[in-house]
Amino acid sequence: MRRTITILVLPALLFIFIFFVLPLLFLLAQSFQDPETGQLTLAGYAEFFQKETSQIIYVRTLRLGLTITLINIVLAYPASYVLARLPAKRRTLAMSLVILPLMTNPVARTYAWLIILGRTGLINNVLLSTGLIESPERLIYTEGAIILGLTQLLLPLMILSLVSAMENIPKDVEEAARSLGANGITTFLRVIVPLSADGLVLGATLVFTGSITAYVTPVILGGNRMLMLSTLLRQRAMMAFDEQGATVVAVVMIVTALAVNLLVRMLRPKPTAQR
Amino acid sequence: MKISRWYTLSLGIVYFFLLGPFLIIFAASFGAESTLSFPPRGFSLDWFANVFANEQFIRSFWTSLQLGLIATILSLIFGVPVAYALTHFDFPGAGFVETLFSLPILVPGLVIGLSMLNFFVLFGKFDVLTGLMIGHTAILFPYSVRVVSVALRNLDPAVEEAAVNLGANRLRTFLLIVLPNIRAGIAAAFILGFITSFNNVPVSVFLSGPGVNTLPIAMLSYMEYYFDPTIAALSTILIIFSIVLVQAAERLLGLSQFV
Q: Residue A269 — very low, low, confident or very high, per pLDDT cuts 50/70/90?
């Protein structure tokens, strides 16, 4: 049996080790290495955390991640409740529409926001024609543009997590709450929300890590004027040819994402055995 | 207002937000003006013609198609045996293996792309397409292992036991009994993997090279130079393609339970 398991698992294990794990370890080593002398150094990290520009970008990335997560929770919670209560057939159709942005070419999906927010785009044209503004406002390359684009991208993940948690809540529980005198809002806040907390935590983690690591949306809607960690990494690697700088940003990004995941896993109460 | 109204309203807002931008792209791709503006003026199909006349788009489309198919098939060839081992045997290190194969989802794509580029530059002199294939295969592992594992767990063990009792060995049982029974799961893994590869930017952006671009990368570089509705027209085509694929997959396989 041991031989069977080895034959089944070993080829994939070798592949993932050579082409995925090793390059990552190598990148980690590179971030601690002086590009000229090859000696061990913390200079790359010192520069990242001391320079004002990278500090601003790091804080902005975390702040936008948090903002987007909160917006997603507010938008997704009631909508997920409706979706979870739909009859199976209609839910299938409704969910397939929800996951559409996840399945669409990211450039296509983000391009829509350029049409909406551009100089000659929808919002500027509407504001100009109503006389509210006299010349077009710059709406792209702003934090707001990034927030809009990433919310559209990540909302499906939040909804999927919440819906699958809410599906498991028996209808009787709500009816019990109602018959004991709770109104709709109280039932939602004190019964539905606590019982779907697992989905909320999972969804929030996915949305937050998705926001701080997303690439296409910040490239198109933030550009070089409104940098996030991901676009800073691109700039260092491809425009400044600062290879060590790029690996430092990469390590900061990955450590932040993993730290959030770990923190959430530690804080989350152990799932109870019976469901 | 009654709370049930609020619920419906919130669902409306969510759909408006998720799908509204797509409708705007559709409308913009038929505009007659050569700078993108909204609402569009006039009507024209020129931008669609432009898409098909652009050699970069056509060539990168074929690259993306080829890459998506090969990477997905490779990730299944490597991944299905792992899923089988994880669901059929209790072996030391199983938890570690499971975590290892879910890592490519947890690690940001951009970091994966950068690390592979640096690694290939020093250790493997692959041509661009091979490099892309390796990169894409690695990022698809989590989908093939997880989705096929779900399908295998849902399969009634009695079916396999019956085959074994009737004298079939493990391999024969797998090929003749298990595989046909999990074909929906394999198909779901295939579609999910293909879409993931076809839409990938962060890994491809580092591994693309002179003359070899994937479609999304070609679109991004077109956008750096032109601001006409050609990208809107191409986006319309791609969005319709996604709608058809997702609808079919959801109806046949229940795709959203695997995402």
A: low
Residues of B in contact with A250 (CB under 8 A): 108, 110-111, 114-115
The token pair at B39 is 């609402």
Q: CB distance A96–B254 less than 8 Å? A: no
pLDDT reported for residue A272: 46
pLDDT at A275: 37
Interface test with A, best of B11, B98, B173 (most A CBs within 10 A): B11
Residue A101 sits at the vertex; the CA angle it makes with A99 and A104, to the nearest 5 degrees, is 110
Using alpha carbons, select from A141, A91, A213 the residue that is nearest to residue B256: A91
Chain B residues with beta carbon closer than 8 angstroms to that of A20: 103-104, 112, 138
Strand segments, DSSP code E, in A127-215 are none
Residue ranges of the domains in chain B? Answer: 3-257
Q: What is the ipTM of this complex?
A: 0.88
Cβ–Cβ below 8 Å for B21 and A116: yes
The answer to the question of residue A4 being in a domain is no
CATH at A186: 1.10.3720.10
CA dihedral A84, A86, A88, A94 (to 10 degrees): -80
List the single best residue of A19, A22, A127, A230 to mutate versus B (max B Cβ within 10 A): A19
Q: Could you tell me the fold of the domain covering B3-257?
A: MetI-like fold (1.10.3720)
| Model confidence pLDDT, tens digit, residues A9-54 | 899 999 999 999 999 999 999 999 888 887 888 988 998 999 999 9
Indicate whether A92 belongs to any domain: yes
Q: Which residues of A touch B21 (CB under 8 A)?
A: 109, 112-113, 116, 152
DSSP B172-230: HHIIIIIHHHTHHHHHHHHHHHHHHHHH--HHHHHH-BTTB--HHHHHHHHHHH--STH
Domain that holds residue A169: 53-226
Query: Does residue A36 form part of some domain?
Result: no
Residue B232's SS3 state is helix
B125 φ, ψ to 5°?
Answer: -90, 70
SS3 B38: coil
Q: Do B21 and A250 touch (CB under 8 A)?
A: no
Bond prior to B39 in cis (omega within 30° of 0): yes
Number of domains in chain A: 1
Residue with tokens 């692959």: B126
Alpha carbons B130 and B214: distance in angstroms, whole number: 13
* Residues from chain A contacting residue B15 (CB–CB below 8 Å): 97
